Amino acid sequence: MPPPSKYLNHVRIPENNDWVIFILVGCIFLYVFMMNIIERDASLKDFLLQKYFDASNNLPSWIITSCVTTLTLSVLISQYIPIVPKYIADLQLFGYQLNKFGYTLLAVLFFYLTKSTLGFLFYQSIGDGRKWSIFYFTSTKFYFILSFLLITLCVTHYYFPIDRNKMFLYYFLFFAFVFIFKVFFYLFHKNKILPEKWYYKFLYICTLQIAPLLLLWKLLFF
Predict the structure, then answer these.
(1) Alpha carbons within 13 A on the beta-carbon side of 14
(2) Average pLDDT per consecutive 10 residues, the chain (222 residues; last block may be shorter)
(3) Are 69 and 143 in contact (CB under 8 A)?
(4) What is the number of other CB atoms lying within 10 angstroms of the CB of residue 56?
(5) DSSP 8-state class, residue 210
(6) Is 173 exposed, middle or buried, given 0-12, 13-18 or 19+ CB atoms closer than 10 A?
(7) Is 121 helix (H, G, I), strand (E, B) or coil?
(8) Which of 77, 95, 103, 209 is the most exposed place for a label (fewest CB within 10 A)?
(9) How far apart, in Å, are the Cα atoms of 68 and each of 1, 29, 31, 125, 205?
(10) Model's pTM, two decimal places?
(11) Interacting residues of 103 by C-beta distance below 8 A, sequence separation 6+
């Protein structure tokens, strides 16, 4: 009888990505609900081009768009984080631990909640609280388009034969471009969503765009 080392296990356990489909389908249903109920059967063109003073239910649309962006972003980048920190992995709820997706979702959610809270406080502190509602109305359009790009990337990443190690560099360049584009989008948008004074604009970009992003990077990759 040959020693056990001679036996090779050729059984391959395929990767199960059903959870990705469930999340993406849920995100699409959220958008269907938003467009049909909250936006009152608005077309995609009307939704993207509507003016602030003609729009209604801006806050629910912003919340739904933020949720979809958070979910799709977490799905995409969760496979690249090295490990779940031990202090997080040791936390158990009903006997379950957070996996990489759960930890990423928690970190991205913390990132957006922190950034949104600081953004609200920033506008209130400079005496321009009314502009905050115009800001999140305008940013909703930006993140709405971004979320569809993220959905496309998620489908490509999990269901097409790509080299995921090489794709990380392309993802990094993609998000760097999105960040730079978003800064210019905020600076030069016709709604003038950033404060009028240049030093407030500089303060916003440094403290509410760059700093939270560096914090998120540290939480996920260090």
Answers:
(1) 5
(2) 45 64 95 90 85 83 94 92 80 76 92 91 87 91 95 92 85 92 91 87 87 87 77
(3) yes
(4) 11
(5) I
(6) exposed
(7) helix
(8) 95
(9) 58, 10, 8, 29, 24
(10) 0.86
(11) 78, 81, 84, 85, 88
Spatial distance between the Cα atoms of 22 and 169, rounded to a whole number of angstroms:
27
d(CA 202, CA 213) in angstroms, rounded, equals 16
Residue 197 DSSP label: S
Whose structure tokens read 């496979």? 79
Burial 69-100 (b: 16+ CB within 10 A, else e): bbbbbbbbbbebbeebeeeeeeeeeeeeebeb
**Token pair recorded at residue 122:** 């920033």
Cα-Cα-Cα-Cα torsion 143, 40, 154, 146, nearest 10 degrees, comes to: -20
Angstrom distances, CA of residue 196 to CA of 169, 189, 191: 36, 12, 11
Task: Single out the residue of 68, 80, 213, 216 nearest to residue 151, CA to CA.
Answer: 68
